[in-house]
Design brief:
The protein is built from 15 helices and 20 strands. It is an alpha+beta fold. Among the domains are: 118 residues, Uridine Diphospho-n-acetylenolpyruvylglucosamine Reductase, domain 3 (2-Layer Sandwich), CATH 3.30.465; 116 residues, Alpha-Beta Plaits (2-Layer Sandwich), CATH 3.30.70; 76 residues, Alpha-Beta Plaits. The chain has a seven-stranded antiparallel β-sheet with strand order 17-12-16-13-19-20-18, sandwiched between helices. Helix 13 packs antiparallel against helix 14. The longest helix is centred in the C-terminal third of the chain and has 23 residues. The radius of gyration is 23 Å and the shape is globular. It starts with 10 loop residues before the first helix and ends in a 14-residue tail after the last helix. The relative contact order is 0.13. Bound molecules: flavin-adenine dinucleotide.
Length: 474
């Protein structure tokens, strides 16, 4: 909860909302419990006093005007797949469900852009664009998140190593400010030096500055060919040591993921499919790289694959397995995409960290994390986007009390965030700060940067009603 005092949604206000949005307002027991949390419930649950399904920019503007006048907190909500407690109504108030604003409005194939509403699911845009031979490059693991949520968290994902993050694909957006005013940031142009970039301030602002109600996103021609490689290693150290070699040897993968054997096993139990080799000539695999190359020329890709195989085998890989058929590629990437669900399925208490460190520091960082984890009663599991140094570290426990878990995890996270900072890294590479990470953000960024961030928040949201208590301490 934030420290501010807000008004409640009174019966009169509820009546007014129901009259404005017939059949779209839910209160009390009408509200599905899924709205009380996101995918990381350890950061707390909160029940909104009213959930309203928005259908248009005008709807969002009307809701914001009313809430602004009445000093009611508002939480914008996409699909609720976030991992930081950012879309949880910790102060009650109104939650605006954006998922019904889910139209792909139009493509402009001359300018390579698509105009979408924020509730469109990533999966739906990816499939639709593919039919036109186009690619929307951002590829976070959760395909059923909304594009509005992706933009608001600056989601990353598997292809960020080659194509960049969501931020790199947002051209412009329509935003409803906390007082209900509607404005446009950016334009359908490919460069700008036109004043402060308010567009970029909105991207990754986790619903704290304004509500995005329409976006123009950049697309690229879809590469026609891909090859994926599964590369097993005896241990994590050797596996991670290979990562910088891809770049040093001028091989630009579309995706370059690492994973420990425990995660792979959990994922195979979860999906029921055996796709990763476990033993090679009597040596047990302890960790893996999963690499994809893309392009339009299959021969060139095969040459690249050969070159990659030479480099990694020389660096200690146990083997190189090629997934070149659609089924093999689908199975192996489906296994990768289900890592988090697989961990969740086997774990009662879960917390995670999403640090990003320079690529040549990953090995040092992960061995520090492993060593640090030995002092606690939970298990530490890791996987992540090795190609861009973005690591997902999970603390998992089944046999300890929640309070003990939280206390131990607090100490563990403090240790490992500090180490990331010492190595030149940052608190979050793609999941955001939300509620769960804001204390770490404040201690990492220090007073000057937090003062600037608070100042920006006040300019956008003088009453502090929009997603209070998230990102910064408001
Ligand atoms: C299995 C799994 C795998 C994942 N893999 C990745 C990954 O690889 N990379 C990655 O980056 N993330 C990943 N995530 C995290 C999550 O999917 C992303 O953070 C996603 O961007 C959240 O989108 P959402 O629609 O669920 O948003 P929500 O969780 O509903 O909201 C997230 C934030 O965005 C705000 N918001 C939502 N819509 C709007 C809007 N229209 N206007 C203003 N603010 C808005 C909310 O207030 C909140 O602050 C994963 C999650 C899961 C469960």
């Amino acid at each position: 909860m934030s420290e501010q005092c807000f008004q409640k949604v009174t019966p009169e206000l509820e009546k007014e909302l129901r009259a404005m949005f017939p059949g779209k307002v839910y209160t009390g027991s009408e509200i599905n419990e899924d709205y009380f949390h996101d995918e990381m419930p350890i950061y707390g649950k909160g029940m909104p006093e009213a959930v309203i399904e928005a259908g248009s920019t005008e709807d969002v503007s009307k809701i914001m005007k009313l809430c602004y006048e009445n000093n009611i907190p508002v939480t914008p909500r996409g699909a609720g797949t976030g991992l930081t407690g950012a879309a949880v109504a910790l102060d009650g108030g109104v939650m605006i469900d954006m998922t019904k604003m889910n139209k792909i409005i139009s493509y402009d194939e001359e300018n390579f852009v698509v105009t979408v509403q924020p509730g469109v699911l990533l999966n739906d845009l990816a499939e639709d664009a593919q039919k036109r031979g186009l690619l929307y490059p951002p590829d976070p693991g959760e395909k059923f998140a909304t594009l509005g949520g992706n933009v608001s968290t600056n989601a990353g994902g598997m292809r960020a190593v080659k194509y960049g993050c969501t931020r790199d694909y947002v051209r412009s957006m329509t935003v409803v400010l906390p007082n209900g005013e509607v404005t446009e940031f950016g334009a359908t142009v490919s460069k700008t030096s036109t004043g402060y970039s308010l567009l970029n301030l909105m991207i990754g602002s986790e619903g704290t500055l304004g509500i995005i109600t329409e976006m123009v996103l950049k697309l690229i021609p879809a590469p026609s060919e891909t090859i994926s490689l599964i590369i097993p290693y005896e241990n994590l150290e050797e596996c991670i040591a290979t990562v910088p070699l891809f770049f040093k040897n001028h091989m630009q993968p579309q995706a370059l993921e690492f994973m420990e054997k425990e995660i792979v096993e959990a994922s195979e139990r979860y999906t029921g499919k055996n796709v990763f080799p476990k033993e090679l000539e009597g040596v047990q695999a302890g960790a893996y790289l999963l690499v994809t190359f893309d392009g339009d020329d299959m021969e060139a890709l095969e040459d690249l694959t050969e070159k990659a195989a030479e480099v990694v085998l020389e660096a200690g890989a146990l083997d190189v397995l090629i997934a070149d058929t659609p089924v093999k590629k689908k199975d192996v990437w489906a296994a990768r995409s289900s890592f988090l669900e697989a961990i969740e399925a086997e774990t009662k208490l879960l917390d995670e960290c999403d640090v990003v460190v320079p690529v040549n520091k990953i090995a040092e960082y992960l061995s520090f994390v492993k060593e640090a984890g030995k002092s606690y009663d939970f298990e530490v599991k890791s996987f992540g986007h090795a190609g861009d140094g973005n690591l997902h570290i999970y603390a998992c426990a089944n046999d300890i009390e929640e309070e003990t878990f939280k206390e131990q995890v607090g100490k563990f996270m403090t240790e490992i965030y500090k180490k990331a900072a010492d190595l030149g890294g940052l608190i979050s590479g793609e999941h955001g700060i939300g509620y769960g990470k804001k204390e770490y953000l404040a201690s990492y960024l220090g007073d000057t940067q937090m003062r600037l961030m608070s100042g920006i928040k006040k300019v956008f949201d003088p009453k502090g009603i929009l997603n209070p208590g998230k990102v910064i301490v408001s």
